[in-house]
Every structure is written in structure tokens, then in C-alpha cells.
Amino acid sequence: MNDHRELFSDEAEHALLGAIMLDGELFDLITARVSTADFHDPENAALYQVMIDLHATGSPIDPVTLNDFKPYLPSGGATIAYAGELAKNTPSTANWKAYARIVADLAVLRRLVDAADAVRDSAGERRPVAEIIASAQQAMADLRDLDTGEPDYKRMGEVITRNIDLIDAKFSGAVQSGLSTGLTDLDRLIRGLRKKTVTIIAGLPGSGKTTLGLQIAQSIACTGAGVGMVFSLEMPEEELGNRALASIGSIDLRVLDSGQLHDDDWPRLTSAVKKIMDKPLYVSDKSGLTVPRIRNICRQVKRKHGLDVVVIDYIGLIGSDGKAFNRTSELGKISTGIVNIAKELDVPVILLAQLNRDSTKRPGKKPIASDLRDSGQIEADAHCIILVHRDMDSDDGQNGVTELIMPKCRHAPVGSCWVQQQGHFARFVDFVGREPNHDGDESSRPFAKRFSGVKEHV
Predict the structure, then answer these.
(1) Closest CA to 369 of 327, 406, 332
(2) Residues 218, 181: contact at Cβ < 8 Å?
(3) Count of the separate structural domains present in the chain
């Protein structure tokens, strides 16, 4: 498209700038609706930014003060001459809302055209169709909240009114605080999986983080609590299926892999198939999925089946858009993108992550949040972090006793709990034995109370 005249209005931009100079009380109202980037003409955008910078100093805005603050605009023209001409020719400040609407709407249209041009360019580069669609949907998602007509704020009384209704519903049992993980002590620790949150489950390779993530989604789907979507960027779907059958049917995973089932395994297998066959648990084992592609798949599932929980295994295998400077920056962008998916789709997201091996070098070998590999942004973005710790140098660890350490949670006190890993069944179960002895450094932790294997830090 060579002619974009219909996608901007010099008259509206001029009138909006003039209105600010003629009525100082309009500044906050206009700047709340229109940004510098919304102006098409660079000269108008530059003058608008000068107005914003001048207002921040506490000075009034008129042609003289603007000129004193910045005598020349990018074109080299005098600020006082350009600003004075705009102020003189502004027909009326009473119509500022109409001017602001025109400027903002045309800015959105230009961005839509830019997004369409980008899609066309991608198509010309013969990129995969799925990748082009994901990019287009990402562009549309970026535009979705530009101008909804809704205010960007709410009176606290409105928020509290909704909270009271929700508290009452929880009290009566009509609504749960969050989805259950299927593990009693873990539920007590994290107080349920909440909508719009990201829970990081991290561990060393072989610690059981994949088992735990899959099991949570499986429990939610198979108990009728909701619809689960699992992204396995490393493990093929066939292995995910065998793990689900082993977990639900109490069948040794090695037997399923070999196909050498014993007589008593067959009824268990039949029972497991019945329990999972029609349940709303969906999987994708596509490798190298990017954040936009993950969002696209989640939106498909939500549109067709509903969606209540998403599990992604794991962040280190999520594909890059190629725009970051290094892998740490890349993972930071990915982490923030996953948080946006949780908010946009109104679901809890469980994001698996690797830990570095620093924890194995410290006394007690217990991991901490900063052991998350490659990016502190992951730790910062997470609403809740669960570190899977199984000390394989101890007898308890050899027997599957695993500690789930929660060093961060925005809706519950930090703490830890114990679970029993049954590796041959690819699952965790509630821990019913005696709590393992603590290491020397563990005894100094300020636990406020303990119950059913759960410890809370205050």
C-alpha cells in the first residue's frame, strides 16, 4: 500500500495539540487516552512529547513555555511558530474527545495494516503456515487491549463487592479456593492452583518434576475438576500416554514399555483406560513451540473444549522468536509471555524448569529459588515456585521420599511438604511415613507450625 492518507488525520492531530495549549485541565484526560506513538506526523509526535516533558516539570503549557523548554522541533522549525499556529487554528476545545478518538483509532488501524504487511512478508518468505498464523494471532493479541472503551482503573469498593461474593461462595462450598493438585499436603501448602497465575515446578534432571506436572493435569481432568492441556516439548506423546496408564492403573511403567504384562496387569490396564479415555486431558508433543504458538493452541483448546490448567514441560525447550540478545534475555521474554497467557486465558499455568547444580555443592543439598537455570526473570515472574528435592545419597531418597520446597508464593506462606515418589508407577502419592531427619542446616529454619507433613515459614 503506497497511499496511507486514509490512515491518519493531520487536522485531528493539530486540533488535539491545540486543545492542550488552550485548556490546561485537558492534559491528564488527553494523555490518558493518547500516547506519543499514536501520532502519525513526527512533528506532531515530537511536540506532544515536549508537552508531556514540560508538564512533568510543573510548568503550564502554551507556545511560549514550550519554546522556552525546547526552541526547535526535529524538522528545525521554531517551536513557538508551530505551536502558536496550532493553538490559533484549533476550532474548539469542547470537541477534544472526538479529536482524541480519531487520533487513537487511526493509530490502531495503522498497526493493523503493519501487522497485515508483516504477515504478507512472512508468507513471501515461505515460512511454515502454522508459524505465520501464530505470528498473526500474536499481533492481534498485542492489539486487543488498545482501546476497549473500559477504564483502566476501578473504584476499590467495586473490587471489594466482588471479593465478598467470592468469599461467601467459598464459605458455602460453592467455589473452591483453587484447583487441587491431587496431593493432600501439596494442596495445603500452596492452597490450590489459582487462575491467572504461573507456578514454577523446578528440579534437577530425574527429580520427578515432569511426573509431578503431568500428574497434576491428569488429576484435574480425571476427577472432573476441569480441562487440562499438557505441552511436552521433550517427551513424546506415546511416553506420556504410558506414564498416565502406569500412574492411574498402578502398572509398572517398565512392563508397559516392554509389553510383557502379567495376568494381573490386564484388568488394571483396562480400568486405567476406562478412567482416562473420555476425560478432557489434551497433549502436544511438538518440539520447539514458541510462546505465540503455545498461546494459539491453548486458545483452540479453550474455544472447543474449555480450559482450566496448562502444563508446559519445560521452559528451556520453548522456541525463540530470534529477537533477544542472548539466551538469558530470551528466557526472560518467554517467562513474561507465559505470564500473559495465564492472565489472558484466565487459567493457572504450571511451567516446568531446570535447576542448575549449585545446590548439590552446598550443605544439605537443598535447592533455592536462585538455582533456576539461566534467568532471574523466571523467579521474578512466578506467582509460586515449587522445588522438587530428592536426596539420592540418603536412604529416604533412594526409597522415593521427596521434599517439595516452596520458597515463594504470593498467596500462601513459604514452606515445604513431603511426598512419596513411586517411580515404577510414574507418580507421587501422599507421604504417610515418619518425617525424614533434618540436616544440620535444616534445624535452623524458623518453622511456625507443622501439620500432616507440611511446614510453613513465617
Answers:
(1) 406
(2) no
(3) 2
